[in-house]
Amino acid sequence: MALKRNIRTMRLLLAEDDPLLGDGLRAGLRQLGFQVDWVRDGQAAERELRAQPYAAAVLDLGLPMKDGLDVLAALRRDGLAVPVLVLTARDAIPDRIRGLDLGADDYVLKPVDLHELAARLRALVRRAHGQVQECLQAQDLVLDPAARTVQQAGAPVTLSQREFDLLQALMLNADRVLSREQLEQHLYSWGQEVESNAVEVHVHHLRRKLGAGLIQTVRGVGYMLLRQAPPP
Ligand code: CA
């Protein structure tokens, strides 16, 4: 379970009751490379954040069933450290201050600028993992999560969206074994159908493009990418 709780992904929980805004944010963030699960009330937000290892949460404050600030307070009281970005109205300064006091990590004003939101989320996830650099590095690979580009030994590599997401998960968790189930969680949001053998297929393609030795199979457990190339 420890492994599962600590997995590093770009999977987000979005808690927003406004259907238009929620739908727009989910679609926009997905296009920018996040996996997004969307809940529409505070109780569901708290339940899911307790149950699943999200990389970060986007929390509207005015939520039905349970107010966003109460959700935040309950999570922090129980020591849940998931980074939380709060959505607030432009004039709701007391809410913003209270949110930060209660343990919000950042906030974005409504109307939401999607690109600002995505940049702040990437920064939150980076900080949560003690990473300062925007780009991920392992062996001769450099992956830029914002531009969604990969270079190997300085040369650009073309990857499909899923291949990129899989490589990103492996690089965020370099030197750690990820199970197939964990990788599937990274590749798919709720309600998206998981193709059988999807992980195996994408690993196969990544090996073909990046070299057979890059991603290690740990028999019966999963896959791992080493930060440093093993000695020949
Ligand atoms: Ca609301």
Give me the secondary-structure topology.
Elements lengths: L1 H5 L4 E5 L3 H13 L3 E5 L2 H10 L4 E5 L7 H10 L6 E6 L3 H9 L4 E5 L3 H15 L7 E3 L2 E4 L4 E4 L2 E3 L3 H12 L7 H8 L10 H13 L4 E4 L3 E4 L7
Parallel strand pairs: 1-2, 1-3, 3-4, 4-5
Antiparallel strand pairs: 6-7, 7-8, 8-9, 10-11
Helix pairs in contact: 3-4, 7-9
The chain binds calcium ion.
Calcium ion binds next to loops.
Description:
By secondary structure, the protein is α/β, with parallel strands linked by helices. The chain has 2 domains: 2-128, Response regulator (Rossmann fold); 136-225, Winged helix-like DNA-binding domain superfamily/Winged helix DNA-binding domain (Arc Repressor Mutant, subunit A), CATH 1.10.10. 41% of the residues lie in helices and 21% in strands. It has 9 helices and 11 strands. The protein has a 5-stranded parallel beta sheet with strand order 2-1-3-4-5, with helices on both faces. It is elongated. The structure holds calcium ion. Calcium ion (CA) binds next to loops.
CATH homologous superfamily annotation of the largest domain: Response regulator
Q: How much helicity do the residues have?
A: 40-55%
Largest sheet properties: 5 strands, parallel
Report, as a whole number of angstroms, the end-to-end distance: 34 Å
Class based on secondary structure composition and strand pairing: alpha/beta
Radius of gyration using CA atoms only: 18 Å
Distinct compounds present: calcium ion
SSE ordering: HEHEHEHEHEHEEEEHHHEE
Number of strands: 11
Per CATH, the class of the largest domain reads Alpha Beta
For the largest sheet, list the strands in their spatial order: 2-1-3-4-5
Give the rounded overall mean pLDDT. 87
Quaternary status: single chain
> CATH architecture of the largest domain, please?
3-Layer(aba) Sandwich
What share of the residues does DSSP label as strand, in percent?
A: 15-25%
User: With helices defined by DSSP (H or I, 4 residues minimum), what is the helix count?
Assistant: 9
Low-confidence stretches: 1-7
The number of domains: 2
CATH topology of the largest domain: Rossmann fold
